[in-house]
Amino acid sequence: MAKHRIYSVSVASVYPHYVAKAEKKGRTKAEIDEIICWLTGYSQERLDDQLANNTNFENFFSQAPRMNPSRSLITGMICGVRVEDIQEPIMQEIRYLDKLIDELAKGRTMEKILRNSQVDS
Fold first, then answer.
1. Of 42, 44, 57, nearest to 12 (Cα)?
2. What integer pLDDT is reported at residue 121 of this predicted model?
3. What was the pLDDT predicted at 119?
4. How far apart are CA 84 and CA 35, in angstroms?
5. What is the largest CA-CA distance in the chain?
6. Among 14, 37, 45, 50, which residue carries the largest CB count within 10 Å?
7. pLDDT(120) > 80
8. Rounded Cα gap, residues 82 and 105, in angstroms
């Protein structure tokens, strides 16, 4: 089976769209970075390096230092598909990120977005 085209797209090429979506709703780039770092375990410095190196989505997620175990609490629809039902692991990680960005743009608090009150880490 051929890989989906999104796997070869650089995170850096989509990142400005994440930021623009957030800022349009009164949220910040710092909140986007916090979400990405929470999800992947990247430090801010390593995230910046990944963006500067134009790392594609497949490598970005497969090389992530520590995917957050609380990401399994992310549920709901994104692009007409329930994120919890996606079978392909990298696609599920991409959609988890999409879902978190959507929640930010919809005005959810960072505590709820990062599932802080639902699981002890």
1. 57
2. 39
3. 44
4. 18
5. 41
6. 50
7. no
8. 19
